[in-house]
Amino acid sequence: MGGTPHVRGANTRNKIQSVALDLFVELGYEKTTMREIAEVLGITKAALYYHFKAKEDILVAISQGLGGPVDELVAWARTQPRTLETKREVLRRYSEVLMSAAPLFRIMQESGAALRALGIGQTLNDRVAAIGELMYEHGASVRSQVRISDALASVHFGAFFLPAIEGDPEEKRKALLESALETLDSSAEEDL
């Protein structure tokens, strides 16, 4: 039974993050208060403050949670040969990760200054740079490397714009990925 409070605490933190993320998206990050988060959760502000001292702490925790899969992807890719198939798999997995991070992207678009102050944007940039480094090969032509950049940018920045396109979210993600993979494949043709 000694592990129960820890699990309960972790579950509470996760629930707080989930509710806060929904409110940040619905109301806007700046307009959401700790009081509103506590009210939706049905807990006291004191209970909320026990887990998070400020909404900034909640947003940092959300960002770290969504960034974990990117860190795992980078770690996996570093153990793989830099083949076209590995690059294709990196783009596939990154596309899936970005789909789950879509709410955070929406907050980033609307609250860029607040996120910069928390360092979230820099952390995201560092993760994207790490993925980019895994995609390039020494000795590849400039055109090939530019096409790889295009493919990665398509998956990354396309995730920001997909909500504006009508249709099923998964269908849109797959269409974006397909386009990026075609661009990636053309990078390999450049160096043949």
UniProtKB/TrEMBL annotation:
Official protein name in the record: TetR/AcrR family transcriptional regulator
InterPro entries per UniProt: DNA-bd_HTH_TetR-type_CS, Homeodomain-like_sf, HTH-type_TetR-like_transc_reg, HTH_TetR
DNA-binding feature ranges: 33-52
Protein keywords: DNA-binding, Transcription, Transcription regulation
Keyword Transcription regulation: yes
PROSITE patterns: HTH_TETR_1, HTH_TETR_2
Domain HTH tetR-type: 10-70
Regions crossing the membrane: none
